[in-house]
Specification:
Helices cover 0% and strands 38% of the residues. It contains no helices and ten strands. The chain has strands at 3-5, 24-27, 32-36, 39-44, 50-52, 65-67, 84-89, 101-106, 111-116, 119-124. Strands 1-2-3-4-5-6 form a six-stranded mixed beta sheet, with no helix packed on it. A four-stranded antiparallel beta sheet has the order 7-8-9-10, with no helix packed on it.
């Protein structure tokens, strides 16, 4: 059963107002879909994977977040002009294990940094 919250009241959903019946959230038995323009744009599936632009997960060892399009595909991480953008690789919830490996762009100095074993290893100026 799928219940749509898209401007239509149903027994299973609260009163939601709006005129666009092609936009909203769809709750399936094991998924939640985000829809716009009558198309599913993102899905959280029964395994907790977040799928953007697709309903098919990626490679099994790295399928928690999958982004797909029919053309160039990418992701943007935006920070303030005097701050850093960082992706951390962690195997812990505290200490240096939280950033055992990392990629960082330093906007203040326009450097790209790479770290392993919680230590900077490469800096590209």
């Amino acid at each position: 059963m799928t219940t749509k919250i898209n401007g239509t009241n149903t027994a299973a959903s609260p009163a939601i107002t709006g005129a666009d019946t092609d936009t909203g959230l769809s709750f399936g038995t094991d998924t939640v879909n985000i829809n716009t323009g009558g198309t599913t744009r993102a899905t959280v599936d029964s395994a907790g994977r977040f799928l953007i632009g697709t309903t098919t997960e990626g490679e099994a060892a790295s399928d928690d977040l999958t982004i797909a399009t029919d053309a160039h595909t990418g992701m943007t991480i935006r920070s303030g002009s005097s701050h850093d953008c960082t992706i951390n690789f962690s195997d812990a919830t505290s200490g240096s294990g939280e950033y055992a490996g990392w990629l960082q762009y330093n906007h203040t100095n326009n450097h790209m940094l790479f770290g392993t074993d919680a230590t900077e290893k490469i800096r590209i100026l």
